[in-house]
Amino acid sequence: MKKTYQRLPESELDIMLVLWNNTPPMTRPEIEKVITMKKKLASTTILSLLTRLENKNFVEVTKQGKMNLYTPLVSQSDYQAHESQSVLEKLYGNSLKKFVTSLYHGKKISSEEVQDLSEFLKNLEDREK
Q1: What is the pLDDT of residues 22-33, one digit of tens each?
Q2: Which sign, positive or negative, has the C-alpha torsion 41, 47, 53, 58?
Q3: What is the rounded CA–CA span in Å between residue 57 and residue 9?
Q4: Cβ-contact 79, 16 below 8 angstroms
């Protein structure tokens, strides 16, 4: 059975990125210290976002003394795969070619990146043989 995830708003995704890119479990002050490098959020806002993520089953909360420890329940790679598939389906009719064409014509992908992608696809093809 394919697992589906709710799409996270940017503010909740920012919290998940902190958890994914650091060493969980993390406390709210540890999360706040990292997130403050990107943008200033009040402690109460961070707590609210963590509660929402817990309610959506994205994080698990365990108590250690007076502190709550937050651990991601969803891996970054699983979430990325789900979001990528969703974008591909909704915006590009499930066509990877249309997606890459859009990036290339929008100047969001260089000819070097096209070459890297070509080599990547060739390697995938070779592995399938």
Answers
A1: 999 999 999 999
A2: positive
A3: 15
A4: yes
Q: Retrieve residue 105's tokens.
A: 């014509």
- Domains of the chain (ranges, CATH numbers): 10-72 (1.10.10.10), 98-128 (no CATH)
Q: Give pairs for 38-44: CB < 8 Å, separation 24+.
A: 38/14, 39/14, 41/11
Helices 10-21 and 76-92, interaxial angle, to 10°?
140
The CA distance from 89 to 7, in Å, is: 14
List pLDDT tens digits, range 73-108: 999 999 998 888 888 888 888 887 887 788 778 777
70 forms beta bridges with: 26, 61
Alpha-helix runs per DSSP H in 1-129: 10-21, 28-35, 43-55, 76-92, 96-105, 111-128
Main-chain phi, psi angles of 62, to 5 degrees: -125, 145
